[in-house]
Amino acid sequence: MTEEHSDQEHQDQIYLQPIPVRIWHWLNAFGIVTLAVSGAQIRFPEYISLLGSYKSAIYLHNTAGFVVAISFSLWFFYYTFVARTMANLYVPRVDDLKSGILRQAKFYFLTYFLGWENPHHPTPDSKFNPMQKSVYLAIMFVMMPLVSLSGIFLTNVDPLRGLIVMVGGLKLLAGLHFLLACSLIAFLPTHIYLATLGRTPTEHIKTMWTGWEDEEEGHGEESTNADLVTSR
Amino acid sequence: MNRNFKYNRLWLPLLIVALWLPLSASAMEMDDCLGCHSDSDMVGDELVIDEGKFTETVHAEMGCVTCHESVTEEHPDDGEAVSNSSCLDCHEELGDEYMATSHADNATCSDCHNPHQVHGLNTVSGPDMNAQCFQCHEGPDVMDSHAEWLPQASLHITKVPCITCHTAAEGYDIVLNITQKQDKLKGYRFSSHADLKEYSGEKEISRLIDIDGDSHISLTELRTFNLNPAYSELELGGTLVPNEMSHNLSTLDNRYDCTFCHAAGPGSMQTSFLALPSEDGLYQRLTVEEGAILDTLYGTPNFYMTGSTRSASMNIIGLIIICGGFIMPIGHGTLRFLTRKNRKH
Ligand code: HEM
Fold first, then answer.
1. From CA A140, how far away is CA B303, in angstroms rounded?
2. Closest Cα of chain B to A94: distance in Å?
3. Does A178 contact ligand 1 (Cβ within 6 A)?
4. What digits encode the pLDDT tens for the residues A116-130?
5. Per-domain residue ranges for chain A?
6. Could you tell me which residues come within 8 angstroms of residue B288 by beta carbon, excluding any fewer than 6 positions away?
7. Residue pLDDT, tens place only, B200-257
8. What whole-number distance in Å separates Cα of residue A164 and Cα of residue B322?
9. What are the extents of the domains in chain B?
């Protein structure tokens, strides 16, 4: 991506999603869908047998679980230590909380319908609007770690029995895992839907595939963007 | 219940004939025999019978001579070998079932049962049943060979006694046991009568859970027990055991199929028991209110079989959450469609 010509090619675009993030995103997306389907078979074996035997559903679920847990760790490591943009990207700032969320909500639920512009313009430094930030924070910092942790506990019931009892018992743990899983599943339709709210329905989705997002005309951040792009 | 009834009807006349003669004479003789055979100084360790344990068993009602018919008045001075009757004489049904399996070449009845300490299925714990198998099948070997196809093999083998998978019973119940913390790393072990006595003090240990003393455990009583901070070291664990004994000791193909246990239609897993240890090391069962295993929060916090003990209320909450995820796409999407003209520049 540092070569000259690609810079030319993407003249009116910004490089929003670096390769590691894109790999992680699709691995994670695929992993979560796999986990949801196999998890559903584990919980409702009488009704769902998409993946063949119960045992294969369990092995698939456990494997996908570990892939997702590891890719989550890599994601965390990448943003915190390599890109060093974790705090910036994911933790809402004070003004995000004070006015940003409201402004963004107003856009999604009102001015969007009137045809106004999105008040937030994604840059590699500030990819997410204040609403996205808060939701992603809850999902990536609370739900994903908890679902992975409870899952890891469930794959080691006997060795971790003492800890499981401390948490309140196997039943509670499984219940927590199930409800968190449902919440993540519930997030999917919302997530996919919001992804279609770009200027064209596929704009954001393409970005997550290629890394490049079309630059909007008339916004004053081009120079910094160009710097960022070439310095990568 | 059913089975015993059948047994009595078929075998009672036979038994009476078999037992009548010796019984009349042996009431005294049993004490005679035990006079020597409960004392290791008299007969040596090998020939000692644990009197306390023997007299508690159903076999004790028959007296010694019923099974050792050839014993004479001069015994032991006559030097004659004493006959042992065959278990098959009286236990035809289970006996024939067992003798038809290939395992009969590997172990005799007395390898698993001490004829002087017999106990029924309902009075032993899962680990005690497994102890019989572990005499010949070494624990680590069994774990290794089962771990090849069974995830969390050690969990399964502590929660599912060998006979649940290796005999062909018709139905299965969940039996709850009180377990308690041992050293930090070792996890939980079954509490003994003495352990529980420390908690119950003067009272019967059953009163720890069976608060109203009606020998039936209600959901409220389970809850009270589970939430009582004084019992924080105690936990209810469950085992899945056959509800009647089969001796078709073999490897049953359908036990490879996890859904033999991990899938169950609505209404299953309703029956459970609480097994309380008695002083002699055996267990006594109390009935538990239907559905305790499925109760989301308190019934038995530490027994969960994926697929078959899921809670229905949890499913509904989950469904509501997932439906919530469609509010945004559907609601917003409709308005978006209706106002699409506004965004045409
Ligand atoms: C990220 C790491 C995860 C791990 C390690 C994990 C592991 C587990 C384990 C061990 C079980 C018990 C059955 C089994 O052994 O397979 C389980 C059940 C289940 N999992 Fe996961 N899981 C993870 C993530 C997820 C996610 C992301 C979802 C859905 C989006 C999910 C959905 C389910 C469901 C529905 C069940 C059945 C629960 C029940 O019967 O109560 N899991 N998971």
1. 30
2. 26
3. yes
4. 878 787 777 777 787
5. 85-231
6. B176, B216, B217, B222, B272, B273, B274
7. 888 899 999 999 989 999 989 998 998 888 988 888 889 999 988 999 988 887 788 8
8. 27
9. 2-80, 122-312
